[in-house]
């Protein structure tokens, strides 16, 4: 069976003025459905560039990227947007919630773009907030929630469209240790119970230890790729 994500000889080259940056250099990578992968590496090693390509936010300069059997490396922008909306959820370090907009409305957003009825948007967004332990906080604005709770709203928003893959780029980077554990517990649970494939960028090894596979990047290349037993923390 082919992998969910298959990268063949992927390069990403940025040109800024006369300077050429080889952000990704010949990446060959297969990720199967249901994996929980941590991508590690120092700042500037290409982690976000790889995530953006795998998440269909950007395209490789060279090489082939197949997602679920489809060639997306060369797909048109509207096709990419559709794939993102249907298949992919994103969680970022900075939460990226819309201010002065309730948790419920933030979580509804992907369904709004799909043209789902308001009633159905609300129902599914409420269920997603419940799933991340935020039942009862539907009407709170982001400013009325803690950092950990805001990140949970972002996870609910990522989940509401029932994606097959969740990309998380330093999701705990702005959180204290306790909130980080909560967020990682939720991600581990989504992977285990719902079978969602998770690809997580982090530079902290205790955060990476929740994953069952660890990739280490250096200078635009994957220099280490190991599978191991994840640290399964009990979710309270
Ligand atoms: N939009 C861009 N334009 C030019 N260079 C970029 C751009 N994005 C990233 N880079 C460069 O590509 C390299 C990899 O960056 P990035 O993927 O953000 O690394 P990481 O997420 O591991 O810190 C760095 O040298 C960075 O300066
Ligand atoms: Mg980065």
Characteristic terms for this protein:
236 residues; alpha/beta; four-stranded antiparallel beta sheet; 10 strands; globular; binds magnesium ion
CATH superfamily: P-loop containing nucleotide triphosphate hydrolases
Poorly predicted ranges (pLDDT <50, ≥5 residues)? none
Please count the helical segments: 7
Number of strands: 10
Helix percentage: 25-40%
The arrangement of helices and strands along the chain is: EEEHEEHEHHHEHEHEE
Strand order of the largest sheet: 6-7-8-3-9-10
**Proportion of beta-strand residues:** 25-35%
Through-space gap between termini: 36 Å
Based on CA atoms alone, the radius of gyration comes out at 18 Å
Mean pLDDT: 94
CATH class: Alpha Beta
- Form type: globular
Which fold name fills CATH's third level, the topology?
Rossmann fold
| Main sheet: strands, sense, barrel | 6 strands, mixed
- CATH-level-2 architecture: 3-Layer(aba) Sandwich
Number of domains: 1
Structural class: alpha/beta
Bound molecules: adenosine-5'-diphosphate, magnesium ion
Q: Explain this structure to me?
A:
With 236 residues, the protein is an alpha/beta fold. It has one domain (5-227): Rossmann fold, CATH 3.40.50.300. The protein is 34% helix and 28% strand. The strands form two sheets. Strands 6-7-8-3-9-10 form a six-stranded mixed β-sheet, sandwiched between helices. It has a four-stranded antiparallel β-sheet with strand order 2-1-4-5, with helices on one face. A hairpin with a 2-residue loop joins β9 and β10 (221-227). α4 crosses α5 and α5 runs parallel beside α6 (177-194). The radius of gyration is 18 Å and the shape is globular. The model has no long low-confidence stretch (mean pLDDT 94). Bound molecules: adenosine-5'-diphosphate (ADP) and magnesium ion. Adenosine-5'-diphosphate (ADP) is lined by residues 14, 16, 21, 23, 41, 43-49. Residues 47-48 line the site of magnesium ion.
